[in-house]
Amino acid sequence: MSSAIIVIPCYNEEKRLEVLQFRKYVLQNPQHSFLFVNDGSSDRTALILDDLKDSNPDRFDVLHLTHNQGKAEAVRQGMQQALHAGVDFAGFWDADLATPLEMIPQFAAQLEQMPERSMVLGARVKLLGRQIERQQLRHYLGRIFATAASIVLQLPIYDTQCGAKLFRVNRENQCLFSTRFLTNWIFDVELLARARQLERFFDCPRLEDTVYELPLTCWKDVAGSKVKPHDFVKAFFELCSIYWRYLRPSLKLPYTQLPEHASAEETRKAA
């Protein structure tokens, strides 16, 4: 069974963090562990996370950021650490568990069964027989944005913004998190734009061949979400900045360079 670290960005999650769910999960899946990133919380989140780590330091770790830097940077710093920890897969998950933790093995199974795939993205597709509970307004705004993102990325992707994603440890994915994001609300789209740029400048595999969208069997809106309807307006401006920075045809230089070493096996040997 493949090993994995899941990054959980946390900002003032004192009232929403389901500690018992995380403890139950690691007992049933000892090959997986969690890295919680405390993004400068002002409530008791830091204390709760430290207690959780003390209860099982082999499966729980905490990265404390001194001040609030936003979800994008919290995820990036957590993923940088996870991608260099000697595991097979690394991903990030929303702290509110809108996507249940029990879905993680299904994400891992896709990467295990399809070695050509580099990342698995959760997709909130409302189909009969699936429990996808989402506010109607957010659903329709999300569909409009997803269509715009698909056009900009030139990728037939259904859901860029689901907060459940898992990545294979390789040099391309390490590169995706190597520098700070331009955006905060839609850094998920920026990740894919960075991958498009690697494809263009370094002859990396096409996204169409390496990305797999996994339709979720269960997802629900959780009260207390920090994303508001007016944030969708900000998202469209951020989408324009992504196009200009990564995807415009006249671009001459990539945003970064590929690292020389990045496989999970090489990382383990280095450790």
UniProtKB/TrEMBL annotation:
Annotated EC: 2.4.1.117
Reaction(s) catalysed by this chain's protein: a di-trans,poly-cis-dolichyl phosphate + UDP-alpha-D-glucose = a di-trans,poly-cis-dolichyl beta-D-glucosyl phosphate + UDP
Location(s) in or outside the cell: Endoplasmic reticulum membrane
Membrane topology: Single-pass membrane protein
Coiled-coil regions, chain positions: none
Pathway: Protein modification; protein glycosylation
Positions of the Glycosyltransferase 2-like domain: 6-169
The name this protein goes by in its record: dolichyl-phosphate beta-glucosyltransferase
